[in-house]
Design goal:
The protein is mainly alpha-helical. The protein is built from seven helices and no strands. Helix 2 runs antiparallel to helix 7 and helix 3 packs antiparallel against helix 6. The longest helix has 36 residues. It is rod-shaped, with a radius of gyration of 26 Å.
Length: 176
């Protein structure tokens, strides 16, 4: 048996198998690590998109609470407040970055509508408005989409595309 393992052909086959296995393991570890880092940027960083969406929800809830005190003075406030609360709930229930993007867009519209109506009724909305807008600016400044796009491109590039079937990683959804 030892003599067979020392034969040049057998050694070459073993070496080829080891090289192929190491390439697959290396690719999987590399893509797993990249995906983990990018996903953490979305969900866990202090200025990550998820955290900024949470800040926008807090500002929207604060504006909605402020609206409670103005409903009796202005009948247009109640339906705008109800719409804002629906959009907050939709954002909280969104499961993916693209769903969150769509819900965030709707939230912007309903927030701005209620904010304008409250402001015309004499309410001071500046703290809610600034928190809401600062969080949106941080979302727009986020590197997540650029990194996710780069990651997805690497999955589609050579030589990775040849081994796509052996890489246990899927493309990342962008916040668009």
């Amino acid at each position: 048996m030892k003599a067979k393992l020392k034969a040049p052909r057998v050694a070459a086959v073993i070496m080829v198998v080891l090289i192929v296995v190491s390439v697959f393991v290396g690719l999987n570890r590399t893509f797993y690590s990249m995906r983990k880092d990018i996903t953490e940027e979305y969900y866990q960083y202090s200025s990550g998109i998820q955290r900024m969406l949470d800040y926008r929800v807090e500002a929207a809830n604060g504006l909605s609470s402020l609206a409670d005190g103005y409903k009796s003075r202005n009948s247009a406030i109640e339906p705008l407040q109800a719409r804002l609360e629906q959009d907050v709930q939709a954002l909280l229930e969104a499961d993916s970055p693209s769903e969150q993007f769509d819900a965030n867009s709707l939230l912007s519209g309903s927030f701005n509508g209620l904010a304008a109506e409250l402001e015309s009724s004499g309410a001071s909305i500046s703290s809610f408005q600034s928190s809401f807008e600062e969080a949106q600016q941080a979302i727009q400044d986020s590197n997540y989409n650029r990194k996710a796009s780069s990651y997805n491109e690497k999955l589609r590039s050579f030589p990775t595309i040849l081994f796509r079937w052996a890489i246990f990683s899927s493309p990342l959804e962008e916040f668009r």
